[in-house]
């Protein structure tokens, strides 16, 4: 019995059986019971290696999990699968403060690392709502995005070195703390964003960035889309690398969240487009003067209303308008939600065509909300469905409009099981075949999170 | 005859035979004649695809070349190889100025793209001495570094989208202009830095950055190494993302270039360490004031001498001390030169141990120069060899000291043929086997630049 053999590797207390895990929900988003043969919790890279060598030899499927906050059913298992959790591998190494890096085990929770770094006036270049649960291993496996991508890049850009265990137990250790390394193929890139299908990330060396000490935040309103990309260009230049957020919000979501009795509207309601932007710097007075000057220029260049936050409380209030989904959840009893990338040049027409298609093809819908990290080319779309069974129609509408603009059907959430059948809207058959070929050579038994992202060539449907 | 079949694809005028290419030097660094069966110059991705499909079917080796400025014998061919040049594919697309990107064909020369971007007050995040010859395809295939890595990252970080032709002619087209894309494996990462061994890069979408309008440059001298990483930390924070260079120079190179009759010494000679640092911003007056304040702080924190360039001419003079190799070339009749990465924390001991080992193991040497892009963890080492046959001793000295510190035997130049036999100093056998496995699945006939980086498993020695 494989659970006994796993117990021989990690100790009996660290293998949970079917009964012990079926009381857990699958993930943060689903209350369905976890189905799996068992869950194993190694304490070291050597134990991960031994577990995978065993499972590889037996053809035993392994589903890795981190904080189970992913949005794409990325850790869903079948009843005969083994779950692998690295929660016991959560050590955070000593911080190299001047050169800005830290070595960390994959099971460490992001917020703990953030707190650790803050103690040295440093910042992890990665932040998102799930920070209190999401683990470093999961965040790297998903190439997580979040609210700091514009400034620091995605999770991928934070990684200096990586240790990965391959499906057969082979350990690829390359825990290097420097930015430049042209010693052959940059193997770590392959595992970052591969959603646990190519190897198990066990440790990483991450960059740390100086923690800014000043913050400026503005809300702007626009009658037309045209000036918005121009404003982004102006702020990118004018703020000299300190621009950290540039969010765009279409009317309906802004108006909903600023209705009477909800949040206070910082700028006029009822306009087609809103921008929430923020800069973080190191010289409070000079930063504030520069920011104010640029916002005044933005008014001259086409914004019809603007407000700069005058306090931390006001800044928080600005962000709540973007991040509060209570009113949306009350309005949309059934929702289709999407996370796409587009060229900035295509966003306006996408929003317009999307509104028309939703009206035409989803009669009785309860609304359409579009907003997102425009500075990263990333829009989030939420559609209030007339009924749950209309979700495939919403998917087709969004993904067809994205495909027609060479957009990405996932900007930051990943593919998992949820978007697998739509992957062809963003990637060609040749690309998917190349992915499958790489998977087949690194995981010939197809034991690592099989069926996520794409169906493995020649495998039974999962 | 394969040349005739290639001519049928690209036209007879675009296939050069053995006699037409043997008058060319192999590359910029070697005056040896190019040996190869021929050279083919396609005009489109479709032609590249047809060429590779043909060569794949015939088992014909193809050696891709760009501007032939690489430093690692990366485009060296055997007499029965075909050279592939993309010089006819050099179109530069329209610049998206506000969102900051451009689509470019792989044969475009970097400097042309830089000039093109400058016309829109934008900058390619990539610059190096070979800018007038190096092509975008070659720069991406080598993941080139250069003098702007600290600010913008390596070549890899400039790439938003990529088109690659695989060994069998399959085209992987993913020319996307946005930063966030989690639609399955990020295949482009595999080809960037793979030195032409996994596929032929035909087109790319590159980021463009706002062109700074102010520049501040300082030279500092130190009695000890300790304050230097601290200064880097201070400047990273204090300059808020505008720090663009942080170069460290060990005494002997500084003293040589500032000898009587050579360049003027901006700070005292004869000290163990020098730093040349530069910031580029968008607010000339405020930037200059801030920079000056930080350099004054640096003096208080351990620098024993410092100078800030007061004019463009003085700035150029500062940089010549770092970039002028005439005196070195006159002094070192035979040279071993190296390009390594190390953690900042290991650089001081590396320099010390290296000096001792060179004195002990290379008696009669003519000197040791250490300097480099410290902000990137990248040091360049030049050793004046007593005789040419001592190069392997120099290599062993440097690479053993690098390996003992988990350093990279190549920070930015790559591996090619020159460093292939030392790859094991930086990468484990498991890592090299993983590279070979990936190569074997993407290029099963081993026709693309075989033998570069590592010897292909099961192939005849090249």
From TrEMBL, chains A, B:
Cofactor: FAD
Domain named FAD-binding PCMH-type: residues: 32-211
Superkingdom of origin: Bacteria
Pfam families the UniProt entry points to: FAD-oxidase_C (PF02913), FAD_binding_4 (PF01565)
Gene Ontology molecular functions: FAD binding; oxidoreductase activity
Gene Ontology annotations of biological process type: respiratory electron transport chain
Keyword Oxidoreductase in annotation: yes
Keywords, comma-separated and alphabetical: FAD, Flavoprotein, Oxidoreductase
InterPro entries with a match to the protein in the record: FAD-bd_oxidored_4_C, FAD-bd_PCMH, FAD-bd_PCMH-like_sf, FAD-bd_PCMH_sub1, FAD-bd_PCMH_sub2, FAD-linked_Oxase-like_C, FAD-oxidored/transferase_4, Oxid_FAD_bind_N
Homology family: Belongs to the FAD-binding oxidoreductase/transferase type 4 family.
UniProt-recorded name of the protein: FAD-binding oxidoreductase
């Amino acid at each position: 019995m494989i659970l006994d053999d796993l117990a021989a590797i990690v100790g009996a207390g660290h293998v949970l059986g079917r009964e012990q895990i079926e009381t857990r929900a699958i993930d943060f988003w689903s209350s369905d019971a976890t189905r799996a043969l068992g869950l194993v919790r190694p304490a070291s890279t050597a134990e991960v290696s031994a577990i995978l060598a065993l499972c590889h030899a037996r053809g035993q499927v392994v589903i890795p999990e981190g904080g189970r906050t992913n949005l794409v059913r990325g850790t869903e298992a079948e009843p005969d699968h083994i779950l692998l959790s690295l929660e016991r591998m959560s050590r955070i190494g000593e911080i190299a403060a001047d050169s800005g890096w830290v070595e960390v085990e994959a099971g460490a929770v992001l917020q703990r690392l953030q707190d650790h770094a803050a103690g040295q006036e440093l910042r992890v270049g990665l932040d998102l709502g799930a920070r209190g649960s999401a683990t470093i291993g999961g965040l790297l496996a998903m190439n997580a995005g979040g609210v700091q991508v514009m400034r620091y890049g995605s999770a991928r850009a934070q990684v200096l070195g990586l240790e990965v265990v391959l499906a057969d137990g082979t350990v690829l250790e390359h825990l290097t703390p420097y930015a430049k390394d042209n010693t052959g193929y940059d193997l770590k890139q392959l595992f970052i964003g591969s959603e646990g299908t190519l190897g198990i990330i066990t440790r990483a060396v991450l960059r740390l960035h100086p923690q800014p000490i000043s913050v400026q935040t503005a809300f702007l309103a626009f009658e037309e889309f045209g000036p918005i990309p121009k404003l982004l260009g102006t702020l990118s230049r004018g703020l000299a690398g300190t621009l950290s957020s540039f969010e765009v919000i279409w009317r309906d979501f802004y108006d909903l969240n600023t209705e009477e009795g909800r949040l206070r509207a910082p700028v006029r309601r009822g306009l087609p487009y809103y921008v929430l932007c923020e800069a973080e710097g190191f010289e409070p007075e000079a930063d504030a003067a520069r920011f104010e000057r640029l916002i005044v220029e933005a008014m001259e260049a086409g914004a019809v209303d603007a407000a700069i936050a005058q306090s931390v409380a006001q800044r928080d209030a600005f962000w709540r308008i973007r991040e509060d989904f209570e009113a949306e959840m009350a309005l949309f009893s059934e929702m289709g939600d999407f996370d796409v990338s587009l060229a900035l040049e295509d966003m306006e027409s996408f929003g317009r065509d999307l509104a028309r298609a939703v009206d035409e093809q989803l009669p009785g819908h309860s609304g359409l909300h579009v907003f997102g990290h425009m500075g990263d080319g990333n829009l989030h779309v939420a559609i209030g469905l007339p009924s749950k069974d209309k979700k495939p129609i919403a998917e087709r509408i969004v993904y067809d409009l994205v495909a027609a603009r060479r957009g990405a059907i996932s900007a930051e959430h990943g593919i998992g099981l949820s978007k697998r059948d739509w992957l062809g809207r963003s990637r060609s058959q040749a690309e998917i075949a190349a992915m499958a070929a790489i998977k087949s050579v690194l995981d010939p038994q197809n034991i690592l999170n099989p069926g996520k992202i794409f169906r493995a060539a020649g495998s039974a449907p999962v």
